[in-house]
């Protein structure tokens, strides 16, 4: 990816860190570091500028930290404009930001639904929309959306999360099909249980053995493994891959019956 410019929406991370980890390693931070290690100049967007700056400081090469509130439409657009203004181009855009929900349909609140929609879905299409025109002008660009198996299978836990993650894949497919002939690719990684700060915050460290037990591989995935899948889809090695959802879940979605 030498010479390419990437933007990672949701590239910061805050704890808790894994034991012995100097910097909390979420999926977005791992993705930014992996793209930088592959030679890309990486722009890192996060709601907390300090967290984005920490990611850039840890990168192997140059980068830029930008503050972006994924729940605010204008902020999403401004972050892409800042990246384009600084480097003049975007070759890769990774939409990673997301929030989990807690409410099933009987208890689903309008406030949580709207917040989930804004962060998990609207921010992704607005980011892609803002980056698309310059990519089309160069007949080249790759989008990778970081999704969840909740967009394919129901956990019975959160309607807003499941619905927005399913819709996120529709945005990816729309871009892939509409602009394939103009040099634009769009794909998604669909993640299962990943040992990330978000999962540890939501479900607690004490739940790690139970989370691992439902995975055929017998363990949670690592953010670095999610990043490796993203790097492949963003790279020229995936030049004939578009409109696809690469499932990275340790075999959970292939098992029967599906674990509760």
Automatic annotation (TrEMBL):
Record's keyword annotation contains Cytoplasm: no
Keywords: Oxidoreductase
Annotated GO MF terms: oxidoreductase activity
CDD domains: SDR_c
Entry keyword annotation includes Ribosomal protein: no
InterPro entries recorded: NAD(P)-bd_dom_sf, SDR_fam
SUPFAM superfamilies recorded: NAD(P)-binding Rossmann-fold domains (SSF51735)
Pfam families registered for this protein in UniProt: adh_short_C2 (PF13561)
PANTHER family per UniProt: DEHYDROGENASES, SHORT CHAIN, SHORT-CHAIN TYPE DEHYDROGENASE_REDUCTASE BLR2146-RELATED
Family of this protein: Belongs to the short-chain dehydrogenases/reductases (SDR) family.
Name of protein: 3-oxoacyl-ACP reductase
Lineage: Bacteria, Bacillati, Actinomycetota, Actinomycetes, Streptosporangiales
């Amino acid at each position: 990816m030498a010479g390419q410019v990437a933007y990672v929406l949701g590239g910061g991370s805050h704890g808790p860190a894994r034991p012995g980890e100097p910097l909390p390693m979420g999926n977005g931070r791992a993705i930014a570091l992996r793209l930088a290690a592959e030679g890309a100049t990486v722009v890192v967007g996060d709601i907390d500028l300090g967290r984005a700056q920490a990611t850039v400081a840890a990168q192997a090469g140059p980068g830029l930290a930008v503050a972006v509130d994924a729940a605010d439409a204008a902020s999403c657009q401004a972050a892409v404009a800042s990246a384009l203004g600084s480097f003049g181009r975007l070759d890769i855009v990774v939409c990673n930001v997301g929030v989990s929900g807690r409410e099933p349909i009987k208890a689903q609140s309008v406030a949580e639904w709207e917040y989930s929609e804004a962060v998990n879905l609207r921010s992704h299409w607005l980011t892609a929309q803002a980056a698309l025109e310059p990519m089309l002008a160069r007949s080249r660009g790759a989008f990778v959306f970081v999704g969840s198996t909740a967009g394919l299978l129901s956990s019975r836990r959160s309607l807003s999360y499941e619905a927005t993650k399913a819709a996120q894949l529709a945005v990816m497919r729309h871009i892939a099909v509409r602009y394939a002939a103009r040099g634009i690719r769009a794909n998604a990684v669909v993640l299962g249980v990943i040992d990330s700060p978000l999962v540890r915050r939501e479900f607690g460290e004490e739940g790690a053995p139970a989370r691992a037990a439902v995975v055929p591989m017998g363990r949670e995935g690592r953010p670095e493994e999610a990043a490796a899948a993203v790097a492949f889809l963003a790279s020229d090695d995936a030049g004939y891959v578009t409109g696809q959802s690469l499932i990275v879940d340790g075999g959970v979605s292939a098992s029967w019956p599906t674990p509760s």
